[in-house]
């Protein structure tokens, strides 16, 4: 009986130890993936962040604002489908900088990012203005997009 208990404990410890070892093992470097994503030696790359701010236009007509926001969302989807925008979303709290939302564009060119942000109907109408910043982040960031639809039940 005592040997069975020791055997069980021993098996448990070895399985637990193996499981812990598996979790801490670093994944094998994938050169093909790194190259396809434009990763540098650190697995990073340059992007451009656009911070949307409150624009100068004051649109009181709710129907008109609804049309602009629908166009805003449609444009984000179009840019994402084209691989130009990889992150977009609103801020959940007011802030002193008056940032309303942000885009992370898959380009290191501020000029290209500005061209893309200007395709937004809400930006065109002056609902949003913007600030542009270079940013350095994980080259794997765009990979989450292929899974986004798997976790989405409704579109806004």
Q: Can I get a quick summary?
A:
With 156 residues, the protein is an alpha+beta fold. Helices cover 42% and strands 22% of the residues. The chain has 2 domains: 2-28; 35-151, 2-Layer Sandwich (Alpha-Beta Plaits), CATH 3.30.70.1060.
Task: Please tag this protein with its features.
2 domains, alpha+beta, 156 residues, signal, Alpha-Beta Plaits
Please tell me about this protein's structure.
- This protein has 156 residues and is α+β, with helices and mostly antiparallel strands.
- It has two domains: 2-28; 35-151, Alpha-Beta Plaits.
- 42% of the residues lie in helices and 22% in strands.
- The chain has helices at 2-24, 31-37, 62-81, 110-117, 121-124, 145-148, and strands spanning 44-54, 85-90, 99-105, 128-138.
- The mean pLDDT is 87.
Which band does the percent of strand residues land in?
15-25%
| CATH hierarchy class name of the largest domain | Alpha Beta
- Describe the biggest sheet? 4 strands, antiparallel
Rg over C-alpha atoms, rounded to the nearest angstrom: 23 Å
CATH topology of the largest domain: Alpha-Beta Plaits
Instruction: Note the gap between the termini.
Output: 62 Å
Shape: elongated
Task: Count up the domains.
Answer: 2
Relevant CATH superfamily of the largest domain: Dimeric alpha+beta barrel
Going by CATH, the architecture of the largest domain would be 2-Layer Sandwich
**What's the number of helices?**
6
Order of adjacent strands in the largest pleated sheet: 2-3-1-4
Structural class: alpha+beta
Indicate the mean pLDDT.
87
């Amino acid at each position: 009986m005592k040997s069975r208990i020791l055997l069980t404990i021993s098996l448990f410890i070895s399985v637990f130890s193996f499981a812990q070892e598996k979790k801490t093992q670093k994944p094998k470097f994938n050169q093909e993936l790194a190259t396809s994503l434009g990763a540098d030696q650190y697995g990073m790359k340059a992007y451009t962040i656009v911070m949307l701010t409150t624009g100068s236009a004051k649109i009181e007509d709710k129907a008109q604002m609804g049309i602009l926001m629908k166009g805003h969302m449609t444009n984000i989807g179009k840019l994402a489908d084209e691989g130009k925008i990889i992150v977009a979303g609103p801020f959940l709290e007011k802030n002193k900088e008056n940032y309303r939302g942000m885009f992370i564009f898959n380009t290191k060119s501020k000029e290209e990012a500005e061209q893309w942000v200007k395709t937004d109907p809400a930006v065109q109408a002056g609902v949003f203005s913007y600030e542009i910043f270079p940013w350095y982040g994980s080259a794997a960031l765009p990979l989450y997009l292929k899974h986004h639809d798997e976790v989405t039940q409704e579109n806004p």
